[in-house]
Design brief:
By secondary structure, the chain is of the alpha+beta class. It folds into three domains: 1-20 and 102-237, D-amino Acid Aminotransferase, Chain A, domain 1; 21-100, Dna Ligase, domain 1; 239-384, Succinyl-CoA synthetase domains (Rossmann fold, 3-Layer(aba) Sandwich). The protein has 13 helices and 18 strands. The chain has helices at residues 5-14, 28-37, 65-75, 132-138, 156-165, 170-190, 228-231, 239-246, 265-277, 294-306, 324-337, 353-361, 373-386; strands at 22-25, 42-46, 59-62, 79-80, 90-91, 95-99, 103-114, 119-125, 143-147, 192-203, 208-210, 214-217, 250-253, 258-262, 284-287, 312-319, 344-350, 367-369. The strands form five sheets. Strands 7, 8, 9, 10, 11 and 12 form a six-stranded antiparallel β-sheet that branches. Helix 11 links the parallel strand 16 and strand 17 (344-350). The radius of gyration is 25 Å and the shape is elongated. It binds guanosine-5'-diphosphate (GDP) and manganese (II) ion (MN). Residues 43, 45, 51-54, 59, 61, 98, 100-101, 103, 106, 129-130, 198-199, 211-212 line the site of guanosine-5'-diphosphate.
C-alpha cells in the first residue's frame, strides 16, 4: 500500500526526522499563496504514486509566487509519465510546495523488507539523487547494505558505520546515526514495506534534511493500522484494482488481450507462462484465491470483462476446496449478466469436474473446455486468432 510523499514526510517527521517546511495544495491559487508564504523561492512537487518525477518535469524550482502559479497550472491535471509510471502516466491532483533548500550533498538511504532473508535491509549510498538507478547499475560497490537482525534491531554502531561510509563526519555524522535509528523505528512501528529517502541532503548551512520520501506499508499489516485505508489516494490507482481489492482478489493489469482467471498465485504464474509459450499475451494477473466462492468468481469475471483490452478469457481453476460445478455456475452467471460474447476457454480440474464441464457446455456461451493447461492455452490463442484479433 502506497502513500504520497507529503504523507510519508509527515510520518517521518513524527519520528524526529527533519523535513523542509511545506504545504500541500489542490489548486494553482493555493500553490501561489503557499509560495508567497515560503518567500517566493520554493520547490513545486507533483504528488503521484511514482518516483522519477525530477527527470520527468514533476519537480520544479521557482523564484516568484506567480511563477509557482504558472508551473502549478501546467502540472495540475497533467498525466505525468516517469520511468516508474508506465506509458499511460499518473494524473497530478496534489502539489507539494516546499521551501527551497541549498543542497551541498545528496545521499540515498532506505530500509526495505528483503524477501530472501525475511529481514529489514538498510541500503545507503553517498551518491544519491535522481541517478541512483544508474549508480546501482554502474558502480554497485558504492551502495552499502546491511541486513538488520530483528532480535537486536539496528544498533547505533551499525548506523555509525553506515554514516561514516557515506563520508559524514562530526555533528552531521551523529545526526545521521540518529536519523537511521529513527528510520528503523518508523519501519517497525508503522509496518513499512519500504521507506526511502532520496535524496537525504546536507544543506549548505550544514543541516541534514529528508528532501524526498517514499513509503509503502506491508499489506499484510494494514489491519493493525486503522488509519491506513483512509490515507490512500484512490485517484492514483487503477479503478479495476480498487474493485478487486474490495472483493479481496489479487488483480494486476497487464498489456495483452487474454483475460485470465485463476485460483492460487502459483497457478496464476504458471498460467501466464504457458499462455506466453503458446503465443498468447495475458491482459491481467488475477488470483481469486484458494477458497473462492461463486460470488467471488462472478466478480472476478466481471472485472476481467470490464477491461476493454480483453478479447478472450482463459479460466484455469483447480477445484479443491471449491467445487468445479459451483465455479462453473459463477462463470455462467457473470457471463450472462454482462452479455459476454467473447471466446472463453475453461480448464478445470478437481471435485465435481464433470458436472462443471457439463454446465458450461450447456450454457450457450462461446466456451470451449481445455483438458490440460497446455490444451487450454492452445485453444484460447487459436480462438482469439479466429476472431480476427
Ligand atoms: P523524484 O525524482 O521523484 O525522486 O523527486 P525528488 O523529490 O527526489 O526531486 C528530484 C530532485 O530535485 C532531487 O534529487 C533534488 O536534486 C531536487 N530538489 C528537490 N527539492 C529541492 C530543493 O528544495 N532545492 C533544490 N536545489 N533542489 C531540490
Ligand atoms: Mn527522489
Amino acid at each position: 500500500m502506497n502513500i504520497h510523499e507529503y504523507q510519508a514526510k509527515e510520518i517521518l517527521n513524527g519520528f524526529g526526522i527533519p523535513i523542509p517546511r511545506s504545504r500541500v495544495a489542490l489548486t494553482a491559487d493555493q500553490v501561489e499563496r503557499a509560495a508567497k508564504e515560503m518567500g517566493g523561492h520554493c520547490v513545486i512537487k507533483a504528488q503521484i504514486y511514482a518516483g522519477g518525477r525530477g527527470k520527468a518535469g514533476g519537480v520544479k524550482v521557482v523564484h516568484h509566487p506567480e511563477q509557482a502559479n504558472d508551473v502549478a497550472k501546467e502540472l495540475f491535471g497533467k498525466k505525468l509519465v516517469t520511468i516508474q509510471t508506465g506509458p499511460e502516466g499518473l494524473k497530478v491532483r496534489r502539489i507539494l510546495i516546499e521551501e527551497a533548500v541549498e543542497i551541498a550533498r545528496e545521499f540515498y538511504v532506505s530500509i526495505t523488507l528483503d524477501r530472501e532473508s525475511s529481514r529489514y535491509c538498510l541500503i545507503a549510498s553517498a551518491e544519491g539523487g535522481v541517478e541512483i538507478e544508474e549508480v546501482a547499475r554502474k558502480s554497485p560497490e558504492k551502495i552499502h547494505m546491511l541486513t538488520i537482525d530483528p532480535f537486536t534491531g539496528l544498533r547505533p554502531y551499525q548506523a555509525r558505520k553506515i554514516a561514516l561510509a557515506l563520508g559524514l563526519t562530526g555533528v552531521v555524522c551523529e545526526d545521521c546515526v540518529e536519523l537511521l535509528l529513527n528510520l528503523y523505528k518508523c519501519c517497525l512501528e508503522r509496518d513499512c514495506f519500504l521507506v526511502e529517502i532520496n535524496p537525504l541532503v546536507v544543506t549548505k548551512a550544514g543541516w541534514l534534511l529528508a528532501m524526498d520520501a517514499k513509503m509503502s506499508f506491508d499489506d499484510n499489516a494494514v489491519y493493525r493500522h486503522r488509519e491506513y485505508p483512509d490515507m490512500v489516494d484512490y485517484s492514483q490507482l487503477d479503478p479495476l484494482e480498487i474493485t478487486a481489492g474490495k472483493y479481496d482478489l489479487a488483480y494486476i493489469k497487464l498489456s495483452g488481450s487474454i483475460g485470465c482467471m485463476v485460483n492460487g498465485a502459483g497457478l496464476a504464474m504458471a498460467t501466464l507462462d504457458v499462455l506466453k509459450e503458446f503465443g498468447g499475451e495475458p491482459a491481467n494477473f488475477l488470483d481469486v484465491g484458494g477458497g473462492a466462492t461463486r460470488e467471488k468468481v462472478a466478480e472476478a469475471f466481471k472485472i476481467i470483462l470490464e477491461d476493454s483490452d480483453v478479447k478472450a478469457v482463459f479460466v484455469n481453476i483447480f477445484g479443491g476446496i471449491m467445487r468445479c460445478d459451483v465455479i462453473a455456475q459463477g462463470i455462467i452467471e457473470a457471463a450472462s449478466e454482462v452479455k459476454c460474447i467473447l471466446p472463453i476457454v475453461v480448464r478445470m480440474d478437481g471435485s465435481h469436474v464433470e458436472e462443471g464441464k457439463k454446465l458450461l457446455q450447456e450454457s450457450g456461451l462461446n466456451v470451449q473446455i481445455g483438458e490440460t493447461l497446455g490444451d487450454g492455452a492452445g485453444k484460447i490463442v487459436k480462438m482469439l486468432g479466429q476472431g480476427g484479433n
